[in-house]
Amino acid sequence: MSEPYDVVIIGAGPGGYNAAIRAGQLGLKVAIIEKRDSKKLGGTCLNVGCIPSKALLHASELYEAAGNNFEGLGIKISGLALDLGQLLKQKDDAVDGLTKGVAYLMKKNKVETFFGAGEIIAPGKVRVSGETSAELDTKNIIIATGSEVTPLPGVEIDEKQIISSTGALSLPSVPKHLVVIGGGVIGLELGSVWRRLGAEVTVVEYLDRILPTMDGEVSKQFQRILKKQGVNFKLSSKVTGAEKLKTKVKLSVEPAAGGDAEQIDADVVLVAIGRRPFTIGLGLENIGVKLDKRGVIITDHFRTNIDGVWAIGDTIDGPMLAHKAEDDGVACVELMAGKAGHVNYETVPSVVYTYPEIASVGKTEEELKAASIKYKVGKFPFAANSRAKTNHETDGFVKVLADAASDRVLGCHIIGREAGELIAEAVSVMEFGGASEDIARTCHAHPTRSEAVRQAAMGVEGWTMQA
Q1: Does residue 346 sit in helix, strand or coil?
Q2: Which of 98, 297, 409, 438 could staple 311 via S-S, CB 3.0–4.6 A?
Q3: To the nearest 5 percent, what fractions of the chain are helix, strand and coil?
């Protein structure tokens, strides 16, 4: 018999493949299992999530800019047309290149890859069923199987007329009317893609505002911006049924608090009400791994209740974000190797890659008020930022929240162009326990959008200079 693996990882998404890389770097004997039919590594994120959606967001932004904004910049275009086939192809090319990159990294770090479904049949033993059948002996197992689309009762997904986020990446034509069920990150991102390409888009959200986990002020302003862009909203509403006809879907929509239903006709319906941990068929019941009532694997520093079995990413508690899963994977392996692995979930940023982007880290004002924490606020609008004004990209603002006594940064919320890049400064300052004054006293290049972060930090102590 061959020596057992030090760790077998089930799932090759951002959590799994980064765990495998770190394990390889630390000299561990590693195997990773991936059941995706395409035999491509990278999980949902690279194949049907983060990466392809960003390719479509970028291309659709350029298409809309060419049609609406270029002339004002002195750029004249004639014969502008959408080639949807090429737009989708360049998305697929991006995915293909990055998944091949992950496969290369597995080889570079001496990670053995198995394509098939992984099932834990006993402590320290994993069966692979698929292209290759094998039983792997291992000292440790990491469950990194990610999440799946949460279904909506009464609305059956067929990936043609009623689609999930996966189907929204490959529609064969631009729908006349796209109804998005769910006003969260995924629905707003993909809805904005198809609106820019010519669809009428209606967002139906159960709660009374979109992006319910984000800062309330950001949520409200962003909804106004999307409305101005042409997105329609039905808030405090629930979809109770869907009837598929030959050329359309008839949705039954009722007030969330109860009341008379109305009918909405759509060419395509996108179900985007969230995701849930994917733990089916892993054999967790074979060894008694505990889950909570939501199906989340219960862990303590990534350890399950069974010795030698670990879990990371979307399968455990915390934000369902690719970069959180990456950090989980690294920390988990480092703990396994006797090192001090740790993830600070208070400094995990969230980004909505719409136009403009939204980025957030730390506490919202609502959370601070609920916890009775005294704080100060500094805000700065992009309308007063020289780079934003020059580029005609003035929507949004930066908000910095700091402890009233210590000035420690407790949160930062940005709505504006490239917010996802700008948030990194606030994340770094918070990770080091820094104060708003640390940002305010740090020189920022001019003219850049990053100056808006500095000006907002100045505003915490009331000395904003440029607005």
Answers
A1: helix
A2: 297
A3: 35, 25, 40
Task: List residues bridging with 241 in a β-sheet.
Answer: 252
Structure tokens at 100: 């091949």
* Total residues found in the chain within this entry: 467
Model confidence over 287-336: pLDDT tens digits? 999 999 999 999 999 999 999 999 999 999 999 999 999 999 999 999 99
Q: What angle (nearest 5°) sits at the alpha carbon of residue 278, between those of residues 306 and 353?
A: 125
Q: Are 414 and 359 in contact (CB under 8 A)?
A: yes
253, 240 contact by CB (below 8 A): yes
| Structure-token pair, residue 344 | 């600070």
Give the domains, in start order, of the chain with CATH numbers: 7-149+276-343 (3.50.50.60), 162-273 (3.50.50.60), 347-458 (3.30.390.30)
Query: What global pTM score does this model have?
Result: 0.96
Q: Pairing between strand 177-181 and 268-271?
A: parallel
177 catalytic residue (yes or no):
no
Phi, psi torsion values for 74, nearest 5 degrees:
85, 20
Quote the tokens at residue 465: 């200079």
Segment 167-172 shows an average pLDDT of 98
Q: In whole angstroms, give the CA distance from residue 364 to residue 179.
A: 29
Determine the pLDDT at residue 1: 53
Are 255 and 425 spatial neighbours (Cβ–Cβ below 8 Å)? no
- The H or E element spanning position 77 is none
Judged by DSSP in three states, 390 sits in helix
